[in-house]
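Repro:
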Amino acid sequence: MSRQKRQKITLTVFVMAALFAATTAAAQVETVLHSFTGPFTDGSNPLSNLVVDKAGNLYGTTYAGGAVGLGTVFELSPQAGGGWTEEILHNFNNESSDGYFPYAGLTIDASGNLFGTTSTGGIGDCEIDMGCGTVFELTHVGGAWREKIIYSFKGGVDGFSPLGGVIFDGSGKLYGVTNLGGAYSQGVVFELIPKAGQWGEHLLHTFHHDGTKHLDGANPLPGLVSDALGNLYGTTTDGGAYGYGTVFEMVRGAGESWAEKILYSFNNNLTDGLVPDAGVIFDSSGNLYGTNVGGGQYAEGTVFELVPQSGGSWSEVVLHNFSADGTDGFPPQGGVIFDTSGSLYGTTVNGGSGINPSGIVYKLTPSSGGAWTENILFNFGESGSGSSPAASLVFDASGNLYGTTQSGGTYNFGTVFELVP
């Protein structure tokens, strides 16, 4: 989304009176597991969420840094005597058609292989000295990790710049989105099909929003989520009936047929949120939850729920409006996750309280009356704690929370952190 459009959101949504103060939760203990040291050894500036394997190891990407400054894939492993050890599994480079600048996180398959995307690089020719992005696989072989580019985007109808990650279906196919490219330069939904050691792309949808006849979404940024039937769900940062983004569904049909359905268009009406930068998640009842970086009562973003209706439509409920004074954080650039009791957890890039407020970790707890209460679990910005978390969180098997900050830490190149109740 352009800077001008973000400014328009802020200017057109009037600040409402009577702020609702966020409550403070029981103290959370933060531990910085790793402070990135930056180029040209360690990675720097992680923008994505982490994934956890069965052994409790954490995996993620850094957008920059590494041996040549173009990003890394890293692993953090807990040690028996305490502490964590980092290993760089791959340094992205601009040689041999490798991708670089990974914006999204990773997916682990049943064999422990890692899959992800890079926003640029590969064999495509989209910009001067920059490729169109890739999908890659990292395989653990003989004690080392080997990278394989399984698809390089060409920048035409097949898409350009995959800023979200990829997910698997039950048959081993991969699904994702590109932010740009396609027949109308507004992004695509793609499927990658493995065949005899190679992967082929199948386009499921090309986004087309012209603001008049075609009120489709445009420019999907995050990745996808699937339901039990294999249908795919995601968000677009632009397009829709009002031009401020959508939540969409890709409905699986017979054979390889797919149909897109817009479930909700965000509206600049002084109450609705605007521009979903993150994806959506399901609860056990089939409702969808997500975040907006703009809009709401105070123009600082929202957390929302979409509820399916009997006639096939979906209704929206705004669960939380981030406040105008910034004390409860803004904007929620990352998505939300559930705990086992049905509470939601997320981060904001800015805001909070303290000497140098630089984002928060928050919890939203539902009540029997339908209201949700926000508790601030941690305020970033103190010396060494990290700052500006831009991604979603992840739980381990013990209920501890893990995440990344894109800056801060000992060297100001970002951190991996843990929150323990």
